[in-house]
Amino acid sequence: MRQFDLSPLYRSTVGFDRMFNLLDSLSGDTAQQPYPPYNIERTGNTSYRISMAVAGFGENDLDIQSKENVLTIKGDKKDEQKEGEREVLYRGIASRAFERRFQLADHVEVTGASLENGLLHIDLVRELPEAMKPRKIAIGGNNNAPQIDAKAA
Protein backbone atom coordinates (compact mmCIF):
# COMPACT_ATOMS: atom_id res chain seq x y z
CA MET A 1 0.00 0.00 0.00
CA ARG A 2 1.32 3.44 -0.89
CA GLN A 3 1.69 6.17 1.67
CA PHE A 4 1.27 9.82 0.75
CA ASP A 5 2.97 12.57 2.70
CA LEU A 6 0.24 15.14 3.40
CA SER A 7 2.26 17.06 5.98
CA PRO A 8 3.00 20.03 3.64
CA LEU A 9 -0.75 20.57 3.24
CA TYR A 10 -1.36 20.19 6.96
CA ARG A 11 1.34 22.70 7.87
CA SER A 12 0.18 25.41 5.48
CA THR A 13 -3.57 25.51 6.18
CA VAL A 14 -5.61 26.82 9.05
CA GLY A 15 -9.25 25.96 9.67
CA PHE A 16 -9.36 22.56 7.95
CA ASP A 17 -8.75 20.67 11.20
CA ARG A 18 -11.22 17.81 10.92
CA MET A 19 -10.26 16.88 7.38
CA PHE A 20 -6.53 17.00 8.07
CA ASN A 21 -6.82 15.16 11.38
CA LEU A 22 -8.42 12.30 9.47
CA LEU A 23 -5.84 12.43 6.69
CA ASP A 24 -2.99 12.82 9.17
CA SER A 25 -4.09 9.68 11.00
CA LEU A 26 -3.66 7.76 7.73
CA SER A 27 -0.16 9.04 7.03
CA GLY A 28 2.74 9.79 9.35
CA ASP A 29 4.12 13.27 9.99
CA THR A 30 7.79 12.63 9.24
CA ALA A 31 8.75 15.64 7.11
CA GLN A 32 11.03 18.28 8.55
CA GLN A 33 9.73 21.79 8.91
CA PRO A 34 11.29 24.44 6.65
CA TYR A 35 12.82 27.74 7.79
CA PRO A 36 11.62 29.46 9.90
CA PRO A 37 10.10 26.91 12.27
CA TYR A 38 6.52 27.52 13.38
CA ASN A 39 3.60 26.07 15.33
CA ILE A 40 -0.11 26.17 14.55
CA GLU A 41 -2.21 25.99 17.71
CA ARG A 42 -5.92 25.90 18.42
CA THR A 43 -6.58 28.37 21.24
CA GLY A 44 -10.38 27.98 21.35
CA ASN A 45 -13.31 26.50 19.45
CA THR A 46 -12.96 29.00 16.61
CA SER A 47 -9.60 30.65 17.31
CA TYR A 48 -6.10 29.74 16.22
CA ARG A 49 -2.55 31.03 16.68
CA ILE A 50 0.47 30.73 14.43
CA SER A 51 3.75 31.12 16.34
CA MET A 52 6.86 31.55 14.22
CA ALA A 53 10.48 31.68 15.46
CA VAL A 54 11.96 34.85 13.97
CA ALA A 55 15.00 35.44 16.18
CA GLY A 56 16.97 38.49 15.10
CA PHE A 57 14.09 40.05 13.14
CA GLY A 58 12.45 43.25 14.35
CA GLU A 59 8.99 44.62 13.64
CA ASN A 60 10.34 46.69 10.73
CA ASP A 61 11.89 43.58 9.16
CA LEU A 62 8.60 41.64 9.00
CA ASP A 63 5.66 42.08 6.63
CA ILE A 64 2.31 40.30 7.21
CA GLN A 65 -0.44 40.40 4.59
CA SER A 66 -3.76 38.60 4.26
CA LYS A 67 -5.40 38.53 0.84
CA GLU A 68 -7.92 36.13 -0.71
CA ASN A 69 -7.62 33.39 1.96
CA VAL A 70 -3.80 33.45 1.84
CA LEU A 71 -1.73 34.69 4.78
CA THR A 72 1.76 35.75 3.67
CA ILE A 73 4.57 36.42 6.13
CA LYS A 74 7.80 37.90 4.75
CA GLY A 75 11.01 38.56 6.61
CA ASP A 76 13.88 40.57 5.21
CA LYS A 77 16.71 41.48 7.56
CA LYS A 78 18.14 44.87 6.83
CA ASP A 79 21.72 45.20 8.02
CA GLU A 80 21.80 48.10 10.44
CA GLN A 81 25.49 47.76 11.20
CA LYS A 82 28.10 48.62 8.63
CA GLU A 83 30.60 45.94 7.68
CA GLY A 84 33.55 47.90 9.08
CA GLU A 85 32.07 48.27 12.59
CA ARG A 86 32.13 44.61 13.56
CA GLU A 87 33.36 41.24 12.44
CA VAL A 88 31.15 38.18 12.92
CA LEU A 89 33.27 35.19 13.94
CA TYR A 90 30.41 32.70 14.03
CA ARG A 91 26.86 33.15 12.70
CA GLY A 92 24.45 30.77 14.42
CA ILE A 93 21.38 33.01 14.20
CA ALA A 94 19.99 32.85 10.69
CA SER A 95 19.14 36.19 9.17
CA ARG A 96 18.25 35.09 5.66
CA ALA A 97 15.13 36.40 4.00
CA PHE A 98 12.05 34.18 4.03
CA GLU A 99 8.50 34.07 2.77
CA ARG A 100 5.94 31.73 4.30
CA ARG A 101 2.37 31.33 2.98
CA PHE A 102 -0.57 29.78 4.78
CA GLN A 103 -3.81 28.86 3.01
CA LEU A 104 -6.70 29.95 5.24
CA ALA A 105 -10.10 28.29 5.25
CA ASP A 106 -13.19 30.28 4.37
CA HIS A 107 -14.24 32.84 6.99
CA VAL A 108 -10.88 32.72 8.85
CA GLU A 109 -9.67 36.25 9.58
CA VAL A 110 -6.45 37.60 11.09
CA THR A 111 -7.25 39.44 14.32
CA GLY A 112 -3.78 40.56 15.38
CA ALA A 113 -0.05 39.98 15.51
CA SER A 114 2.61 40.47 18.16
CA LEU A 115 6.36 39.99 18.42
CA GLU A 116 7.79 38.93 21.76
CA ASN A 117 10.92 37.06 22.81
CA GLY A 118 11.86 36.22 19.21
CA LEU A 119 8.45 34.69 18.43
CA LEU A 120 5.95 36.19 16.02
CA HIS A 121 2.39 35.37 17.13
CA ILE A 122 -0.47 35.75 14.63
CA ASP A 123 -3.99 35.31 16.01
CA LEU A 124 -6.78 34.04 13.77
CA VAL A 125 -10.48 33.52 14.30
CA ARG A 126 -13.08 31.67 12.25
CA GLU A 127 -16.41 33.47 12.21
CA LEU A 128 -19.26 31.97 10.26
CA PRO A 129 -21.85 34.41 8.87
CA GLU A 130 -25.31 34.22 10.44
CA ALA A 131 -26.73 32.71 7.25
CA MET A 132 -24.34 29.74 7.57
CA LYS A 133 -24.83 29.06 11.27
CA PRO A 134 -27.18 26.22 12.18
CA ARG A 135 -30.63 27.34 13.25
CA LYS A 136 -33.36 25.53 15.08
CA ILE A 137 -36.48 24.74 13.09
CA ALA A 138 -39.67 24.48 15.12
CA ILE A 139 -41.98 21.61 14.36
CA GLY A 140 -45.30 23.10 13.40
CA GLY A 141 -48.26 21.74 15.30
CA ASN A 142 -50.47 24.65 14.35
CA ASN A 143 -53.93 23.31 13.39
CA ASN A 144 -55.20 26.79 12.54
CA ALA A 145 -53.05 27.03 9.42
CA PRO A 146 -55.05 27.95 6.34
CA GLN A 147 -55.84 25.07 4.03
CA ILE A 148 -56.62 25.26 0.37
CA ASP A 149 -59.84 23.56 -0.64
CA ALA A 150 -59.86 21.84 -3.97
CA LYS A 151 -63.15 22.71 -5.69
CA ALA A 152 -64.26 21.27 -8.97
CA ALA A 153 -64.33 23.75 -11.77
TrEMBL record:
Source organism (scientific name): Faunimonas pinastri
Lipid metabolism as UniProt keyword: no
Pfam families reported in the protein's UniProt record: HSP20
SUPFAM superfamilies for the chain: HSP20-like chaperones (SSF49764)
Family in the record: Belongs to the small heat shock protein (HSP20) family.
Keyword Cytoplasm belongs to the record: no
Domain SHSP: 29-142
Family matches, as CDD domains: ACD_IbpA-B_like
Taxonomic lineage: Bacteria, Pseudomonadati, Pseudomonadota, Alphaproteobacteria, Hyphomicrobiales
Gene3D superfamilies for this protein: 2.60.40.790
Keywords: Stress response
Protein name: Molecular chaperone IbpA
InterPro entries xrefs: A-crystallin/Hsp20_dom (IPR002068), ACD_IbpA/B (IPR037913), HSP20-like_chaperone (IPR008978)
